[in-house]
């Protein structure tokens, strides 16, 4: 940028007014409470980091478990037609046994 253009952007900086100094140097209950909270903050953050790390570990465990479960479901889900055919065959056998039992009961009663 040439010098003429740079001079176009010159501005006067106006300082912000500074707040008046506090008259009392004694800590207020709010400041004492804030000081206590700030003193315990590093320990709380360290504890939170440990909890988050454990949570992430449990998410990995959950992911592995659901992966194994998905594999099993996929294995069982790949043959629903054969399962349906087996169930239909068992149902037909059960109906035949019921008819046979009904016939035997009717003959015994009659």
Q: What's the short version?
A:
The protein has 110 residues and is an all-alpha fold.
Overall helicity:
over 70%
> What ranges have pLDDT less than 50 throughout 5 or more consecutive residues?
none
Order of helices and strands: HHH
N- and C-termini, Cα separation:
117 Å
Assembly type:
single chain
Largest sheet report: none
Can you tell me the overall shape? Answer: elongated
Number of helices: 3
| SS elements, strand count | 0
Q: What integer value in Å does the Rg equal?
A: 41 Å
Portion in beta strands = under 5%
Alpha-beta content class: mainly alpha
Tell me, rounded to a whole number, the average pLDDT. Answer: 84
Question: Secondary structure elements and their pairing?
Answer:
Blueprint: H1 3-8, H2 29-77, H3 80-109
Structure description:
With 110 residues, the chain is mainly α. The chain is built from three helices and no strands. The protein has helices at 3-8, 29-77, 80-109. The model has no long low-confidence stretch (mean pLDDT 84).
Looking at this protein, list some descriptive labels.
110 residues, mainly alpha, 3 helices, 77% helix, 0% strand
């Amino acid at each position: 940028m040439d010098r003429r253009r740079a001079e176009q952007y010159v501005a006067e900086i106006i300082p912000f007014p500074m707040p008046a100094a506090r008259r009392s140097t004694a800590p207020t209950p709010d400041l004492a409470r804030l000081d206590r909270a700030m003193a315990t903050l590093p320990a709380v953050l360290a504890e939170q980091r440990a909890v988050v790390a454990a949570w992430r570990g449990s998410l990995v465990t959950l992911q592995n478990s659901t992966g194994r479960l998905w594999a099993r479901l996929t294995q069982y889900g790949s043959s629903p037609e054969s399962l349906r055919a087996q169930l239909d065959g068992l149902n037909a056998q059960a109906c035949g046994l019921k008819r046979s039992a009904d016939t035997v009961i009717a003959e015994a009663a009659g």
